[in-house]
Amino acid sequence: MSGTRALARMYRRFGEVDAAGESPLYERVAVALSGAEEALRAIGAVPARRRNPRVILAALHDLALAGRAPALAASYAVGDGDAAAAAAIDTLLRMTDAVVAVAVRRKVRTDETGRHAVLYPAIAEAARRTGASAVGLIDADCSAGFNLTVDRVRVTYGDGVSLGDPFSPVRIPASIVAGRSVPTRAMPRVVTRIGIDTEPLDVTDPDDAGWLRACLWPDRPDRVERLAGLEAETALTAKAAPLLLRGDAVRMLPDALARVPADALPVVTTTWALSRFPPESRLRFLHHLHEAATGRPVAWVSAEGVGVAPTIPTLGDRRASGHSIIGLVVLDRSAPRPVTVEALGRCWSRGRVVAWTATPRNTDHGS
Known about the structure:
Layout: H1 2-18, H2 24-34, H3 37-43, H4 53-65, H5 70-78, H6 81-94, H7 96-105, H8 116-130, E1 134-140, E2 154-157, E3 162-164, E4 171-176, E5 189-197, H9 206-214, H10 223-239, E6 243-246, H11 249-258, E7 265-271, H12 279-292, E8 298-305, E9 324-331, E10 339-348, E11 353-356
Parallel strand pairs: 1-5, 1-7, 2-4, 4-11, 5-6, 7-8
Antiparallel strand pairs: 2-3, 8-9, 9-10, 10-11
């Protein structure tokens, strides 16, 4: 019974704190689940690490979108919280095995196309500093691999600067704060796209693409806009499907680096990924980058919380400051200065708001 009580507290807190003001439907459903003992026992059949509300609610949404829970789908469509709560409990009791099956093999995805707004100028800067005319992109903890289409989107910043493909169907708006524009140089040709994830999503698989939609909250005010962006990004990724490596991102990194052609700059990207790794794994990640930089330069572009990415300067900011640091590391053990480490700026809202602080450099190579 103690486990049921713990689940009840978790779901009530999610409804009253996390979903409150964001999703009236999920607020009502989560609170209702917290008071339904039979439903909580059904959730208890899911492995402990997958019992959290975000996973279970996404699993229920997945069944609704697939037409397997029509009453739940109908209540979501009209925004009826009471009906949604009753339908969610009924679905859990009638389809416990189906909910468990989805939850066991899935993790919640928060693929956001706003990340391109920080990745594009940072990758272009890495290429400039090494004189690279081609890059091979490697995204750690890649999910569906959206970061790997960064050269094929169009990013427009609030100060009028635009980067990327002017004809792209994926249009990314981003705000600029602190007054400095991002550099306007173009990214060189991308010759390799590799994603690493313990559970990568293949957007050419309808089941995987459906799961991305299920992870969107059904009544968020911006859901229509986010869904349209998700569909456009999914289609774009499918046209240039990346190589997806299944496994631990740190352990698989040397294999991914070895797959980048010798005449291209390997650029490893991490966006809000390293916080899921213990500190010792983050150091091993950095060690693999150093090892790969023996015969050619290697770059690492990051957008991580303050103090999360090892060696990246924090700009004097405190941890948990509510924003993230855009970092750049260039490693080349054959160069006079084998390591370049810099904080290029800050960002908020997963890249939708950018403060570029790096000073423009006049040199074509090095730093």
